[in-house]
Design brief:
- Helix content is 44%, strand content 15%.
- With 234 residues, it is α/β, with parallel strands linked by helices.
- Strands 1, 2, 3, 4, 5, 6 and 7 form a seven-stranded mixed β-sheet that branches.
- Helix 2 (72-86) packs parallel to helix 6 (192-214).
């Protein structure tokens, strides 16, 4: 009888402590949280208006150029796969930089994107050609704006006007095979898999970082910025 009782208590003890042990194993991974890396600092501000600034916002920055309806698919992908997912987060915004004189064309795009709802955190800002190029050149990118001042690449900018991305975008298999390191500075908004998987994950990581900062559980950003930028060429 005593043996059965002892066995029962042992089994109950194991069932109780196994989940606790599992949680303790997970704790270090939370402590060693891997942030979304800084790839460029001091991105040029897009506006002097307090209602539309990169500073103090988490921004997805796009350049749709002088023919915005050509980017309707890109805009739809961003709306469905990024904007809809993160619009409830504090200080999130989508900003499209556009050439002056194309306001009417962007009204058409706005109608297309806003077909089902009012996109309060989706903004358009209009600039001269020189200023658009200056904003774009303040970003780190492997591509250039086309002749219409547009690109299918979009960028993640944090609250300090620093561009975020991946300094090592290799998959586990590629790391095991010792493939060359490749960076991810921007996200192609035509490639659904890239937006849905990589960009969505990276946005989630960035919001987690700021949530941890508010709780005082995150590494000092200045120290991390120095560490990140040492790993990439300016």
């Amino acid at each position: 009888m005593k043996t059965k009782k002892v066995t029962r208590y042992v089994v109950l003890g194991i069932l109780f402590f196994l989940p606790v042990a599992f949680l303790l194993m997970l704790y270090p991974s939370t402590h060693n949280y891997d942030p979304l890396e800084i790839v460029k600092t001091n991105v040029k501000e897009v506006s002097n208006s307090k209602d539309l600034m990169l500073q103090d916002h988490i921004t997805v920055l796009a350049f749709f150029g002088s023919k915005p309806m050509d980017k309707a698919i890109a805009a739809s992908n961003l709306k469905e796969l990024v904007y809809d997912k993160f619009k409830g987060f504090k200080k999130f915004q989508m900003v499209v930089v556009a050439p002056q004189g194309t306001e009417d064309a962007y009204n058409e795009l706005r109608k297309e994107v806003e077909r089902y709802e009012d996109l309060r955190f989706w903004h358009y800002t209009f600039h001269s050609e020189d200023n658009i190029k200056a904003i774009y050149n303040s970003l780190k990118s492997d591509s250039r704006l086309d002749r219409n001042l547009s690109t299918e690449e979009v960028f993640i900018i944090d609250k300090d006007k620093s561009q975020r991305g991946r300094l090592d975008d290799r998959e586990d298999r590629e790391i095991e095979q010792n493939k060359p390191i490749k960076q991810l500075y921007s996200y192609n908004c035509i490639e659904v898999a890239e937006i849905k998987n990589k960009m969505s994950d990276d946005m989630r990581i960035l919001f987690t970082e700021y949530r941890q900062k508010r709780k005082g559980k995150f590494e000092d950003s200045d120290k991390r910025r120095t560490k990140d930028l040492k790993q990439t060429n300016e």
